Amino acid sequence: MAKKWIYAMEELGQEHFDLVGRKCANLGEMTRLGMRVPPGFAISVDGFEQYMQVTGLGERIEAYFASLGEDLCDSVQKQMDASQAAKLLIAQTPLPADIAAEIESNYEALCARCGVPDLPVAVRSSGSVSMPGQMETYLYVRGAAEVTRRVLEVWESTFNTRAIAFRLEKGMPVDKAPIGVAVIQMVNARSAGVLLTVVPTTGDQDQVVIEGNWGLGESVVAGDITPDNFIVNKDSLAIEKKLSTKQRYVISTLNGTVQADVPTHLQELPCLQDEEILELVRIALGVEKHFGLPQDMEWVVDNDLPFPANIIWVQARPAKFSASQKEADADYIVDQMARLFRR
Amino acid sequence: MTTATVTQTTTMLPPVTGFEFDEKADLEQSPAWFLDATHSVPPWTPLFGWFWINFCRHGMQYGAEKLSLPTVKGWDWRFRNGGGYLTVMLVKSEEEQRQREDRFRVAIRPFIEDYDGLWHSQLDEILGLYEDLKKVDLDRATNIELLDNFEQTVNVCRRMWEVHMYMMYGTYTGYILFENLCRELIGIDDTHPLFHKLISGFDNKVLQVDKRIWEFSQKAAQLGLADIILASEPADIESNIEAAEKGPAFMAEFREFLDEDGWRMQRMSEMNQPTWIEDPTPPLTNLKQFLVKGGGFNLEQEREKISREREAAEKEVFAKIAPEQKGWFTTILRLAQKSGAFSEEHDHYLDLYTHAMMRRSALGISRRLVSAGTIDTLDDIFFLIPEEIRKVAINPDHYNLRPSVEARRAEWLEWCKEPNPPAILREGFDMDQAMAMLVKSNDPIALKVVVGAMPVVREELNADLHGTCGSPGVVEGLARVILNEDQLADIQPGEILVAATTSPSWTPVFSFISGVVMDRGASLSHAAIVGREYGIPVLMNVFVGTEKIKTGQRIRVDANIGALYVLDK
Question: Residue B222 belongs to what domain range?
Fold first, then answer.
């Protein structure tokens, strides 16, 4: 195949939104801003498209959806059936050898670049439209065969019931959806968490809020634990700390990520040093300035690298904040309720 | 001049003037009218029917309009031979649907943004109205004040139904959305055990009253009253306690509790039977049943377990939800969780309480009518209609309403003999089309209360009856078929209750039965909600349970798979 469909993150930027999806384009843009992101590559929407075309799967799925007729919109049961049927078609269609080989060779190159055979990576969906229900993320994936398998599963997730329903609602084509995939190195996380350049509850833009825990960021993002909380004044850079007793964290093992007890001697200690906090703030303020919008970012501190190379970013996006988040949720719920009456 | 009282003779007014079922006009208006079997079987007395038809109807149209539901304008109601017949009022054009949807988007927001605040402000208003009504001392009031109290009760009933249906439409809309999201996001519907776990483990007022009765049973045991109670027939419990040494003090305390929480009817939607305050036999029977069963209050023991299971279920579900979806999903989940508590509490605070107020006010006037010789007995008032009550209330001694009472009572007795048809359909219109009309309305109450999920018959299970899961679990035991409230006292601890439907006035028995089989029901039916809180299996929509199962038969109920087995055929 002539057309390029796998890219290194460094090759990408905001303008590649449609090509590789939001997540990959963002990671690319972040590298341009001098942020350290985990090394990795992006599979563009053409990857999925190619798989669909070469195997004839696209036509089969198109024909299947065409056979369902108009009333798919009206019946959740039919949407569930359609989801199952489309996924079955995918499951019955193995990845052509050349496509698999391309993904595998890029993965091997990534392993070589990091100097780790069977490098543990995260495989994440990267849609160009934020689509509910189509958000597969696989952490700690190792080995070329596993990586290819997970990529296929991300593609398959475009036929989750919710994603189908969403496309029907928005009047988008239901039988296909562009989706990119990010394959990035798993960071050996000492600590991780989120950073917002706005106080989400009040909309106060003079402070930066950092929340973090030992281990991977999942425990903070999921809201399962009470994290350490740091509030930094953007002008004076004064740090206000609210430390918590961090009893549980998420760590990587050979079998994937698991919840575990934090070793007793670490529970009461802050998960970030002051110099790390200030470095996080420094970079975050630069990103905020670049985009001209308050940012919602995810960070990881690497366990093996020296400061400041240990500060790694995995996400940056415009922050939703204050009443606006609640309002956006309420708007969404109202939309869904109105939909109930359109059956 | 004649001193003879006026005797009404020939023209008897129909019970619900203006809303009597008129076959020609009403079938022209709508092709299908459904009997409200939950509330109007057995047939209503004329006075109760008047209240229900006038104001439940008003409340539904008020609620649908206030929320501007896009596809339905509430229900219309008619009265026919003591039965309430209803039909949905569809929004006719797509243009109008769009206009209504725009307003709906604004009107529904309070349910999303501050559900508790909304519900409690409305509840406080209604409870305040009850207190005003109760301020009137009916024995000392003048006839004018009694009539005034009656008119105010009419207004309170009207306002209660407005609040009732506005809240119910809004609450059920949220609940149905949650059901849909569960289907779409995690592939489970409202008959799935995981779904039930997500919405169980919450306290509500009705369950709190059960617990108070259990506490009284413990107190009775401490005071040495247990043997007396256990040896008494239901009707004699009160007098036998009073006769015991420590009995009067105990009953005084029990009545104090009833003054607070006893404003409820034995039958949920009727006013011709005493309230708990007038006759404490039903709660005392429950108290006795607690003593028979022995042991702790199992609701309390179950609660912690069920709450823990709910938390685990929430975790399981949240793991399948993307972080950015968590915000709104949580809001809808909480809304659905409140639906169960609302379903139970509104019956207690709204329907049952208002009906008790209606009875109180009507009896206040009835006493004057009896002593003036206008009617013979207190119960006669339920065979009058407000127009007649207004006519005679200030000067009852000038009227004789016995012929009215007699004629209507005779008519009512006839209604009770012959069951009302489940639906009245236009010529050429069948039941499937009628059901399709309900579904098309998207009416949240019709979907949750009238239609319900149909059981899937799975041949491989080889079951005797099929149903849907209202509360998960499996149980084997003796069946007790209950056809009306009077039989509730017969239930023995550990039995499986088999009934057409249940209402909050039945709640206390749930603490000592081991399972429930219902002919009809949906996931927000009373039995399903209470069954989940008590952790007992509930199988619903069996349709012919009360017909096919006999009291004393050993049955096995597997609610999880929707199957019922009769073990000794």
Answer: 205-299
